């Protein structure tokens, strides 16, 4: 009995040491990234770069395996997150003629060939439709203001909280095989809104 509890304590300590070491590496990398972003092109470049990082992380979570992600967390919240965090270059491409053609094809496939329309395309098609049909109030005013940044931050906080709860606790979110990749993806969702809010405050 005593040997078993000693082994459990030892494995718990090893897990805590690994998490502590990973956290130190993460903070060091974040500081290095911020310094390099400022050196390369100032705060504007840093914001655009972090927008790309956050958008790619959200897309990664969106296409993640259904059994690991979609059953536990409201994946639909990633759609408004991507809408508000997508860099202007990509957003304008999808809002133009390219996005209209993609939306038209998606609607035609969904209406007339529903059996050939795969389930995994539902969310990306909804994102393209949202970008194409969003009024200028949302596409320009809210998206480029602190309100859009705050919405992204709230979504990231909610997804992290739901992920930790679905994983069975903070430790499991960082130690389970699939939990680590999900957690890293969700943590990356914080980089753009946190940076942008700091810039708005400054």
Care to describe what's here?
Belongs to the Cold-regulated 413 protein family. Pfam families: WCOR413. One of its GO terms (cellular component) is membrane. Keywords: Membrane, Transmembrane, Transmembrane helix. The chain crosses the membrane at residues 43-64, 71-92, 98-113, 120-138, 144-160, 180-201. With 202 residues, this protein is mainly α. Helices cover 81% and strands 0% of the residues. The protein is built from ten helices and no strands. It has helices at 2-62, 78-85, 88-95, 97-112, 122-133, 136-142, 146-167, 170-175, 177-188, 191-201. α2 (78-85) runs antiparallel to α7 and α7 packs antiparallel against α9 (177-188). It starts with a helix and ends with a helix. 21% of the residues are buried. The mean pLDDT is 79.
Helix content: over 70%
Amino-to-carboxy terminus distance: 57 Å
Radius of gyration, taken over Cα atoms and rounded to an integer in Å: 20 Å
> What is the count of helical runs?
10
Largest sheet: none
* Beta strand count: 0
Order of helices and strands: HHHHHHHHHH
Stretches where pLDDT is under 50 for at least 5 consecutive residues are none
Quaternary organisation? single chain
The 3D shape can be described as: globular
> How much strand content do the residues show?
under 5%
Please render the helix and strand layout as text.
Elements: H1 2-62, H2 78-85, H3 88-95, H4 97-112, H5 122-133, H6 136-142, H7 146-167, H8 170-175, H9 177-188, H10 191-201
Helix pairs in contact: 1-2, 1-9, 1-10, 2-5, 2-7, 4-5, 7-9, 7-10
Keywords: Membrane, Transmembrane, Transmembrane helix
InterPro entries: COR413
Subcellular location: Membrane
């Amino acid at each position: 009995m005593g040997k078993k509890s000693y082994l459990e304590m030892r494995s718990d300590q090893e897990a805590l040491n690994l998490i502590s070491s990973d956290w130190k590496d993460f903070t060091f990398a974040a500081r290095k990234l911020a310094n390099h972003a400022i050196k390369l092109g100032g705060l504007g470049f840093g914001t655009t770069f972090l927008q790309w990082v956050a958008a790619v992380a959200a897309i990664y979570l969106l296409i993640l395996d259904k059994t690991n992600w979609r059953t536990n967390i409201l994946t639909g919240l990633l759609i408004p997150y991507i809408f508000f965090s997508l860099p202007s270059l990509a957003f304008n491409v999808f809002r133009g003629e390219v996005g209209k053609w993609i939306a038209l094809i998606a609607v035609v496939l969904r209406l007339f060939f529903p059996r050939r329309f795969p389930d995994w395309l539902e969310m990306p098609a909804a994102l393209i439709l949202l970008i194409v049909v969003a009024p200028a109030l949302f596409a320009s005013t809210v998206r480029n203001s602190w309100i859009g940044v705050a919405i992204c931050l709230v979504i990231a906080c909610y997804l992290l909280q739901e992920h930790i709860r679905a994983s069975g606790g903070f430790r499991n979110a960082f130690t389970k095989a699939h939990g680590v990749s999900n957690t890293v993806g969700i943590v990356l969702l914080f980089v753009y809104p946190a940076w942008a809010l700091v810039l708005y405050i400054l």
